[in-house]
Design brief:
By secondary structure, the protein is mainly beta. About 10% of the residues lie in helices and about 25% in strands. The chain has helices spanning about 20-25, 100-105, 155-160, 180-185, 210-215, 265-270, 325, 340-345, 530; strands at about 30-35, 55-60, 85, 95, 120, 135-140, 150-155, 165-175, 200-210, 230-240, 255-265, 275-280, 285, 295, 310-315, 360-365, 370-375, 380-390, 395-400, 410, 415, 430-435, 445-450, 475-480, 490-495.
Length: about 525
């Protein structure tokens, strides 16, 4: 039954919502796909520099392009993908990030918005093959005292996109596993090797979730916002990662489960938080890998909460009972192993849930293995640059760089493309630059960021089972070397490279971090404090 008792939602009239799209951040970057024709290493070495017949294909629609040859024998063979993306989990499922250089290569002067084809992709399984004309979004109000839905409607894409006021603004989306490979080099986590480019910013267009809920009679006056939550359920069928029926007898987990999570109703209804059901990014319909035809966008939150291929939204009197709401995206203490987490119920301790993005920063330039001749540049400066971000709408207030391991921190110049939302919140990364005197280079370059909480990034990492929210100070080592001409150069080395790519100082035993939150770590990857018990 609909909000008005006739099975339909109460549509909102000519209400104006914030428009911060191409009028402020345009023109949008073009999607210039680079297909990978063939390769012997399946893309594990990064940029396809040795591939014959490589050519750039410009397209106004992703779906005009052929699929990557590596996807031909997978369920995703119908999806075109950019061959430059670094594949992190083999051929299937598809999880990838762009090479670090591609974060800025598309627009060195203004890398704020990333082309859609180079945006991070996190897929837990097969991409649902959904159709714009037939897909429906189920919108369900709360239960009454008899356990019956007060209101429920199904919206077509036509109804969603034409009968509600739309909004448009930029959001940075990041997997909270960004920089996880650094954690895996300390001690293996239960996650795969995200590098440092598992993030991207696009301008999303959609409908505010609070408008959708109000159309079915849900607002602060009709529902107790202190006790209710909003659950979001995707379309895909995934394996039950916890391996059992779960702790909720009324909603047992089967062999297959949906990817789902929830937010407090109070957050969803807060106009300052701008939670959105999005159907476009950078002026185009969403790519299948990125949620086509609709996805949830929660500004300032981790990507793992932003359900793709959204099929169902419902108001419930508790947090989601989804397997993935509990067994994923947790920042557990460093002494908690997989065995301890399962045995002692750590996955159900919601004080460890990860929602907001953590403060973080990264050096893009100099990139891994970049060099600079020493002699001709010793009295000059070199550019050190990268991105930084916070979460929860907090503003990045400063970025600092040091070449003497934190004895002296130097202020970097921040380029802030984003304008705050009407409530003063920031949803996007910033880009920073520091002109480093070459004469000051020593053994390492570090970067750290601060936000409005007036807390900087920690210098030391804290290991955690899922390897998420890895946000300690980012360190680039500086080596004195010689190039092929025999010229003395400084060579720069990042801690890791994404996926199975080789290289990085953190991969060497001699340079590994010796402690990460719970005593010294031995060469077998165990905390010494645990071994002594």
């Amino acid at each position: 039954m609909g909000a008005g008792g006739d099975g339909s939602a109460k549509m909102i009239g000519k209400v104006q919502r914030s428009q911060r799209g191409e009028n402020m951040y345009g023109p949008f970057p073009k999607n210039t796909m680079t297909p990978w024709i063939n390769s012997s290493d399946e893309g594990r070495a990064g940029d396809p520099v040795n591939v014959p017949n490589l050519k750039e294909v410009a397209a106004t629609n992703f779906m005009d392009l052929p699929c990557d040859y590596r996807d031909e024998k997978t369920p995703d063979k119908w999806i075109p993908r950019d061959g430059r993306m670094v594949r992190l989990t083999g051929r299937h499922p598809f999880n990838s990030e762009p090479p670090v250089a591609e974060l800025t290569k598309h627009n060195p002067k203004n890398p704020f918005l990333i082309p859609g084809n180079l945006h991070i992709i996190r897929n837990h399984g097969t991409v649902p093959k959904l159709d714009w004309d037939t897909h429906q979004l189920s919108l369900e109000g709360p239960l009454d005292v008899n356990g019956m839905r007060v209101s429920a409607v199904k919206l077509s894409m036509e109804e969603l996109t034409t009968q509600y006021p739309t909004t448009e603004f930029p959001v940075s989306i990041s997997c909270c596993g960004n920089r996880r490979k650094e954690m895996n080099m300390i001690k293996q986590t239960i996650g795969f090797n995200w590098g440092s480019a598992a993030m991207g910013t696009m301008v999303y267009k959609g409908v505010l979730l609070r408008d959708l809920l109000k159309s079915v009679g849900v607002d602060e006056t009709t529902v107790d916002i202190s006790t209710h939550h909003v659950e979001f359920i995707g379309s895909e069928d995934l394996g039950n990662k916890c391996g059992g029926p779960g702790p909720f007898p009324d909603e047992p987990w089967g062999e297959k489960v949906k990817y789902a999570t929830s937010l407090p109703l109070a957050k969803v209804l807060d106009p300052a938080d701008e939670v959105m059901v999005a159907f476009m990014a950078n002026g185009q319909r969403l790519h299948p890998d990125r949620g086509y035809p609709i996805r949830l966008v929660i500004p300032g939150y981790i990507g793992g909460r932003m359900i793709k291929w959204l099929a169902r939204i419902r108001v419930i009197p508790h947090e989601s009972h989804s397997c993935y709401h509990y067994w994923d995206n947790k920042y557990l203490p460093p002494q908690v192993t997989s065995e301890i987490a399962a045995k002692d119920g750590w996955w159900y301790k919601q004080e460890y849930i990860i929602n907001e993005l953590s403060l973080n920063s990264f050096i893009c330039e100099p990139n891994h293995d970049d060099t600079i001749p020493i002699g001709p540049n010793i009295d000059k400066t070199m550019v050190v640059s990268g991105y930084a971000h916070s979460g929860g709408g907090r503003k990045v207030t400063r970025v600092e760089v040091t070449s003497d391991k934190g004895v002296t921190w130097n202020l970097a110049e921040i380029t802030r493309h984003e304008k705050p939302n009407p409530y003063g919140k920031y949803w996007c990364w910033i880009w920073w630059k520091y002109d480093m005197p070459v004469a000051d280079l020593d053994k390492e370059i570090w970067v750290r960021a601060w936000d409005t909480s007036n807390s900087p990034q920690a210098e030391r990492p804290t290991w955690t089972l899922m390897g998420q929210s890895s946000n300690h100070v980012f360190r680039v080592m500086v080596h004195t070397d010689r190039n092929k001409n025999g010229e003395a150069v400084y060579r720069f080395e990042h801690p890791t490279r994404a996926g199975q790519q080789s290289g990085g100082w953190a991969t060497r035993v001699a340079d590994k971090v010796k402690s990460a939150g719970y005593g010294e770590i031995n060469l077998d990857g165990y905390f010494a404090a645990v071994d002594e018990e």
